[in-house]
Amino acid sequence: MGAQNASQDSIFVKSENFGDLEVISKIKNRYGKNFDFLDWRGSGGRLVALSSNGERVDIFQNEKLSTYSGFEISQFSVLQNSAYLAEGGEIVALTSEANSDRSAVINRIAMFEVREPHKKRFVASHALVEDPRISVYHFAISTGLQRLALLERHALTKDEITNRKKLWSIRVISPTDGSKISDIDLDELKSYGYPQSLDISPDGRNLVVGTDKGWITIYDATTGRAQKRARAYPQGGKACAQVKFSPDGKFVAVSPAVNAIAPREAAGQSNGDEDSLVDIWRTGDLGHVNSLYGRQRNGSSTQSLSLAWDGSGSKIAMSSTTSVSAWQAVTRRPELILTRTVPISASGMAKYAVSSVSFSPKGHLAIAVGDEIIVYQ
Fold this sequence. Notes:
Blueprint: E1 14-17, E2 23-28, E3 35-39, E4 47-51, E5 56-60, E6 67-72, E7 77-85, E8 90-98, E9 105-116, E10 119-127, E11 134-141, E12 148-154, H1 158-162, E13 168-173, E14 180-185, E15 195-200, E16 206-211, E17 215-220, E18 226-231, E19 240-245, E20 251-256, E21 258-260, E22 278-282, E23 288-292, E24 301-309, E25 315-320, E26 323-328, E27 335-341, E28 354-359, E29 365-369, E30 372-376
Antiparallel strand pairs: 1-27, 2-30, 3-4, 4-5, 5-6, 7-8, 8-9, 9-10, 11-12, 12-13, 13-14, 15-16, 16-17, 17-18, 19-20, 20-22, 21-24, 22-23, 24-25, 25-26, 26-27, 28-29, 29-30
């Protein structure tokens, strides 16, 4: 899988830069599969990419996308299209596999070592949930593999529902040995909707949960107590599809499941007719900081797929079923610095989704769109 330098990003039909941005590298998947997930966090400058519905991992050395390692993990199926590469070279992924008689699916944490180019070693996997009726709906890992937060859904019988057994919970554990740190019953969220999204702060102290009715709640990850709650989307009852802490943990970015987009005269400013693509809130008091707007086709709608901050916490990017946008975010007047739109068919369907975004330690932006990865300077 070789990278190539390019000055154009021809896979998009509409490209606008609001600043000095250029393509510094791009790569096509040699197996013809779509890239599903990208992550540059904590990886020593290396980019992790998942493809083939989470059954293949590729690691790229730097922003030029030179290959460092790649391997199949088809004995597992990686859930949530998410993985984390630690500084020491360990890859941690949440996986799903059938038990011995294939009567149930078991969620596990799997760990691989990739300490040398083109070499990997399977380290271990251990079950996260012993009860096959409990499934892991989402997970998040703090910086340095300190804590792993699991959003779990419990399959209940009618009697158990009547007896008010918990339906949703968050379990915070150590990723290395599976020891429990806290267990949070989310039944208190019932009047605010069902959990849809989860993130853990980089220091592992706080959790944020977004619901299908547009509410966000901050929890103490150690005690399990709810700290603050706010309604991110009071009108329309939109679900919080993505929630993401800033690198310093002081802000939370939230993106709704579906956005209605209208054209605008000024980049980054609202004309009052369209929905924000991302909203930013202060973690401490859940005060609203900024609403971020895109610049796309009149009357189109888009579904949020990925949200990423840069290392300084000043920029944020959001990808969706139809587009990708990036902003200078935590400023008095947010500035749209990049927008890209994928081709739309006559039926209104996108040819391929912009499935994931991630910033490098140097602030370059990587975008997974179809079977390509594109890196912008």
